[in-house]
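Protein in question quoted for reference:
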Amino acid sequence: MTTHRTPSAGTAAPPGTAAMSLTERQEERRRRILQATARLAGRGGYDAVQMREVAESAGVALGTLYRYFPSKVHLLVATMQDQLEQLHATLRKRPPTEEDPAARVAQTLMRAFRAMQREPHLADAMVRALTFADRSVSAEVDAVSRLTTAIILDAMGLTGPPGAEQLSAVRVIEHTWHSALITWLSGRASIAQVKIDIETVCRLITR
């Protein structure tokens, strides 16, 4: 396991650094930045998130913001990670109630989808950033993928480590959920169609 060096209080953590390696002051600053980003994106979507406005709203210097997040895409993908972490915590407190694993995963992903539905501008901004992300954002994108996988695996309720076929099914489910979110945001799919697609792909779990 890689050991993270805790940054000194006067320096910002490099992009992608785990929250546990931040000082309390740095973590509080990072939290303000992500909250400001979510507010701006929630009001006006992707184009409303401008680095200078984020810095002003979060009460940090523009240079400090760039040390935490080198670009708007880094910032919005990190915001998606933060939103998923909050969702994961909520799901652990109130797990799905269905008995069938496939139904539990479908229920979980629809809860995640409805959370996105309540903030369509924010959802669109985060998904666009995820789509635009290049290799420089790989750490943040990987974190989002790992969180999505963890949410699905939790919903499956496995008694042991997942097998290769189960992990393959989880990846297909994750891809379908992401695609369904994109088609809904672009107006090419209804919520009812999204629900059907998610329920259909989740049946891979019990094959």
